[in-house]
Design goal:
Elements (H helix, E strand, L loop, with lengths): L1 E3 L5 H13 L8 H6 L4 E5 L5 E11 L2 E9 L8 H16 L3 E6 L2 H6 L3 E3 L5 H6 L13 E6 L2
Parallel strand pairs: 4-5
Antiparallel strand pairs: 1-2, 2-3, 3-4, 5-7, 6-7
Bound molecules: coenzyme A.
């Protein structure tokens, strides 16, 4: 089941992100940030009620939102859960009237399968001012930027 995240999911979400962050696949998020941006997040809950996937849609600017903190537990991969999490965020962006979604990622092929296209990172100065300058990798980001037009 894909659903909006609840406050009681946050510790599990943080643990999942931390495990993948330890492998350098995404950025870990402090609990404080996960609580304050809880409304960004959707989760996948398995049959046992365990959170086995998550994804965030974070608004950046008037026409732009970012997909971030996307993770699916290894035991649940390649079953369409990542796709469904991103599609839930895409639907929300449409409801909010946001016309473009981008992501910074190493998972280029996964996002291309969802219709995203590779673009120049310099297209997103608002992201750089707000977030990238605080990232430990700045200014040597080796992730790829991908963009989806949804309007
Ligand atoms: C990337 C990730 C979320 C994909 O989740 P998933 O549930 O396995 O993906 P899905 O099953 O929904 O795959 C959707 C499509 O992408 C393809 N795909 C999935 N992972 C892929 C990969 N690593 N490379 C190439 N294609 C991939 C699938 O085959 C599927 O294609 P299809 O629709 O044509 O059959 C998952 O591998 C993950 O959590 N990775 C670690 C964290 C990470 O890197 N997150 C991204 C940070 S932005």
């Amino acid at each position: 089941m894909i659903r909006k995240a609840r406050i009681t999911d946050v510790v599990e979400i943080q643990k999942m992100l931390r495990d993948f962050a330890a492998e350098g696949l995404l950025l870990a998020r402090p609990l404080s940030e996960l609580y304050t941006t809880l409304r960004d997040l959707v989760v996948f809950e398995d049959e046992e009620g365990t959170v086995a996937g998550c994804c965030g849609l974070h608004i950046i600017w008037s026409d732009l939102a970012e997909i971030r903190s996307l993770a699916v537990a290894r035991s649940c991969r390649r079953r369409g859960i990542g796709r469904r999490l991103v599609e839930a965020c895409m639907s929300e962006a449409v409801c909010l009237g946001i016309s473009k979604i981008f992501t910074l990622t190493y998972e280029v092929e996964f996002f291309e399968r969802l219709g995203f296209r590779l673009v120049d990172k310099n297209m997103f100065p608002q992201k750089v001012w707000a977030d990238c300058v605080h990232c430990p990798k700045f200014p040597n980001c080796d992730e790829s930027a991908l963009l989806l037009d949804i309007a």
